[in-house]
Write a structure and sequence with these properties.
The complex is a heterodimer of chains A (128) and B (264). Chain A has 128 residues and is mostly helical. Chain A is built from 5 helices and no strands. Chain A has one domain: Fumarate reductase/succinate dehydrogenase, transmembrane subunit (3 helical TM bundles of succinate and fumarate reductases, Up-down Bundle), CATH 1.20.1300.10. The structure holds iron/sulfur cluster (2 copies) and FE2/S2 (inorganic) cluster (FES).
Chain lengths: 128, 264
């Protein structure tokens, strides 16, 4: 990561300047963290309640608009939170710019794909 | 990736052992980090056993004694020897602190002394602070106003002054720029080039919260960045480390609060 250019300390300290976009990332990370608490409690409660249920019982449960709705909210909130969190981890620990960007874009695509697949599956069960 | 181990040429080797306390009643051994960029050797840990009756009670007194009477090549910074100049910051017994405020008696066993962590070393216990000072200058730590200067003093109520001094005297204006906090912050270790670190953010806050300064918005604009400010993950090492008992983590939280406030 050593930069061999001859730069004054001030030039290095100022770098590329502020990105003016720190707030939304920070806020969304906290909002999704808050939302995850009740949603995950609901998920654990539901899994325990459904223990031993057969396929029909499960699909009937998921077809209920409230359950399908909460499930989709959970998927969005968890995967969005994971994307933001993973980005911070990559930014903290990867110093190679290329690898960092690849990892961040990769994480975004991965979680979007996963989210779409999960939402589609939920809707398929809920609407059939 | 982030560096979790020291590079080969930074690995610390055992150094020489000097017993300068023959026949002394109160002995103590100091293990001191030594590095000289000119001899192209790895850093080493020299051991000096000294007679505590020959020096004062603080760790700084001990290393001054070592330099004066045992090894004059030992290099470190110090000036005020009373916790005001911030020059003698170093890592003592695993913690960043001021050598002049750290009583030798507080360390059980040998006293291990190394430079502030994760900074380039100029020599022995002297870290290179050029980048940190430039980061400090980059937040423009002086009063900025558009209103023409009044003919008399700029008015400030005692409550306004408390924002800077703190009601307990531990407000942000108490910072002596020793960098004990920044060099104990993992986020600063991994991204010192882009993250400003707790010392600088506390000082940025000192000007943001100054009721006489008129550049609050510009100052917040400059900090609104995923790295400059938001690399702080509230790990709190900074507040733990500050030898002046200041609270950089709180200053950073206040900046983050204003960032949200101006968008809502
Ligand atoms: S609170 Fe922030 S600045 Fe302080 S040590 Fe933690 S990450 Fe660093
Ligand atoms: S906040 Fe404390 S530890 Fe940090 S530079 Fe200032 S005085 Fe030193
Ligand atoms: S010598 Fe000034 S703070 Fe220690």
């Amino acid at each position: 990561m050593t930069d061999h250019r001859i730069l004054t300390p001030m030039k290095r300290a100022k770098g590329l300047g502020g990105g003016h976009s720190g707030v939304p990332h920070w806020m969304n990370q906290r909002i999704t963290a808050l939302a995850n608490i009740p949603l995950v409690i609901w998920l654990i409660y539901s899994v325990m309640k459904l223990a031993g249920a057969n396929y029909l019982e499960f699909t009937t449960w998921l077809s209920h608009p409230l359950h399908a709705g909460l499930m989709i909210l959970l998927i969005v909130s968890i995967f969005y939170h994971a994307t933001l969190g993973l980005q911070v981890i990559y930014e903290d620990y990867i110093s190679c710019k290329c690898l960092k960007l690849t990892k961040i874009i990769g994480a975004k695509l991965f979680f979007i794909a996963l989210g779409v697949a999960c939402i589609f599956s939920t809707l398929k069960v809920a609407l059939s | 990736m982030a560096e979790f181990t020291l590079p080969k040429n930074s690995k610390i080797k055992p150094g020489r052992k000097v017993d300068a306390a023959k026949g002394a009643k109160r002995k103590k051994t100091f293990k001191v980090y030594r590095y000289d960029p000119e001899d192209k050797q790895n850093p080493r840990l020299d051991e000096f056993t000294i007679d505590l009756d020959q020096c004062g009670p603080m760790v700084l007194d001990a290393i001054i004694h070592i330099k004066n009477d045992i090894d004059s090549t030992l290099t470190f910074r110090r000036s005020c020897r009373e916790g005001i100049c911030g020059s003698c910051a170093m890592n003592i017994d695993g913690r960043n602190t001021l050598a002049c405020l750290k009583p030798i008696a507080e360390v059980s066993g040998d006293v291990k002394i190394t430079p502030l962590p994760h900074m380039p070393v100029v020599k022995d216990l002297v870290p290179d602070l050029n980048h940190a000072y430039a980061q400090y200058a980059s937040v423009e730590p002086w009063m900025k106003t558009e209103t023409p200067a009044p003919t008399r003093e700029r008015l400030q109520s005692p409550e306004d002054a408390d924002r800077l001094n703190g009601t307990d005297g531990k407000g942000p204006s108490g910072c002596i720029l020793c960098f004990c906090c920044s060099t104990s912050c993992p986020s600063y270790w991994w991204n010192p080039d882009k993250f400003l670190g707790p010392a600088i953010l506390l000082n940025a806050w000192r000007w943001i919260t100054d009721t006489r300064d008129e550049a609050t918005g510009e100052r917040l604009d400059q900090l609104d960045d995923a790295f400059k400010l938001y690399r702080c993950h509230t790990i709190m090492n900074c507040t733990n480390a500050c030898p002046k008992d200041l609270n950089p983590a709180k200053s950073i939280a206040e900046i983050k609060k204003l960032m949200v406030e101006r968008q809502t």
